[in-house]
Amino acid sequence: MTRQPTRPAAAPDVGSAADLLDIARSVLADYATEERVREFDEAERFDAELYLELARAGLLSAALSTAGKPHHGRQTAILEELGAGPTSIGVAFVVQYMAVELLASHGTEQQKAEFLDPLLEGAARASFALSEPDGGTDVARAMKTVAVALPDGSYSISGQKKWIGGAMDSDYLILLARTAPISGSAAINGITTFLVRRGTPGIESQEIETMGIRGLAQCDIRMDDVRVPGDCVLGRPDFGFRQVLATLNGERLNAAAVALGIARGAFGTALDWARSRYAFGRAVGGFQALQHSLVDTSLKIEAAALLLEKAVKSADSASASADVESALAKLAASEAAISTTDVGMRLMGGWGFARAMPMQRYFRDARLYAFAPLTNEMIRNYLGERMLHLPRSY
Ligand SMILES: Cc1cc2nc3c(=O)[nH]c(=O)nc-3n(C[C@H](O)[C@H](O)[C@H](O)COP(=O)(O)OP(=O)(O)OC[C@H]3O[C@@H](n4cnc5c(N)ncnc54)[C@H](O)[C@@H]3O)c2cc1C
To answer: Among 56, 249, 326, 335, which residue is least crowded by beta carbons within 10 Å?
Structure first.
């Protein structure tokens, strides 16, 4: 890490969420036609050109306010638009926005210059490596990846990570590893966050074939005695998991935004079909059974959109806590996406099944946010405790 800091991590003021939405729409109109999105999904390839165009348009640097804080209003506006179109790129952006928040909050000036600045410009991509083969929900207790401090101040990291988005070709990993054994019941202590270049000797990545989000490879990572210098620790040693927990609201809001985008994209496709497909001499949208299902699903979408708007306002205002609101928004939006894509598949009959049609992709992609970054069962546990003040159930 020899590069000198060039500029603070705060982004230039890139405008309001509405301005950014216009910019995003214009890039997507040029680079993310339905046909192109389908081609990359079918080829199971990451659309690096589209990603770079979005970055060049300032949509990564928009993640931060001029004060260097996460700007949730902007992030969610952009992500909803990506979710409705090139969903896998939206998921890649969720990971980058999380990396931005962690680096902006905990990075040294040198780390910001080396890792954050290139990320904001689109010149480097990060992967976030937390989940492990033995568990994603109870990950702190299941974590077997260890980082051993060596006498010269460096670390040796060994272990495995699972489901790491984009790790086949990202430039660096934000990786959590155990640096102290679990003591007592607080498994979240004793975990440290590291910034690890993906090309570091000892790292092997392998792609996992998945049913959805096929435009962003999910990966297994194996690490065998991976040596990293001491200045690769991000934030406080042994407090890495707590640092990640502090970004949870933002991640939930961003997951909600992509899920809402999927729901809106699928709903638009279903409504067009309802108007243009004919049976018994009339548009199928004229049948009450289908109309009701469309009304019910639009209700879920509107409810999720309002919850997301409320949560974003709380998160962007310094005075309010957005914990419960962001959990509600994630739950509502992910369930709206699942139910809308189900309605869409039924409404399109056999055509929904065709790979040439976008509905089946929305249907597959919508599943992601039922369990990521946190499963909806755990979100319900959390809401039971924090919103309803019932005893903790886990
Ligand atoms: C496409 C994709 C992308 C991903 N991207 C990343 C990434 O970039 N980085 C990363 O670190 N991880 C990533 N993940 C991992 C993801 O975060 C985990 O899959 C998720 O946290 C769930 O963990 P798990 O799959 O191990 O399920 P498990 O933890 O094994 O859970 C299994 C089931 O048990 C339920 N369960 C567990 N505990 C309780 C409880 N107390 N109460 C009720 N139910 C409970 C869960 O809700 C779930 O239904 C990704 C996964 C996928 C598939």
So the answer is: 56
Residues 6+ apart with CB under 8 A from 65: 10, 11, 71
Cα 381 to middle of ligand 1, angstroms: 14
What is the distance in A from the centroid of ligand 1 to the CA of 194? 22
Residue nearest to atom 27 of ligand 1 (CA): 136
259-277 pLDDT per residue, tens: 999 999 999 999 999 999 9
Measured CA angle at 288 (ends 285, 291), to 5 deg: 50
Q: How many domains does the chain have?
A: 3
CB 351 less than 6 A from any atom of ligand 1 = no
pLDDT of 7 higher than 70: no
- The overall average pLDDT reported for the chain is 94
378 and 256 both lie in a single domain: yes
For residue 5, is it within any domain?
Answer: no
For residue 216, which atom of ligand 1 is closest to its CA?
1
CATH number of the domain within which 87 lies: 1.10.540.10
| Ligand 1 atom with the shortest distance to the CA of 165 | 8
Token pair in block for residue 382: 């959390």
Q: Whose CA is nearest to atom 44 of ligand 1?
A: 377
Backbone angles phi, psi at 3, to 5 degrees: -65, 140
Model pLDDT for residues 359-373, shown as the tens digit of each residue: 999 999 999 999 999
Domain end call among 190, 207, 238: 238
Distance 36 CA to ligand 1 centre (A): 30
SS3 262: helix
pLDDT at residue 9 greater than cutoff 50: no
Give me the pLDDT at residue 14, please. 60
